[in-house]
Amino acid sequence: MPFITTLIHENNFYRSGEGLSGIYFEINGGRRGDPLPAPWNLSAPDPTRLRGAEKHAAIWQAYEELVAYAAANLTVVTSEDIVAMAK
Question: What is the pTM of this model?
Answer without folding.
Answer: 0.63
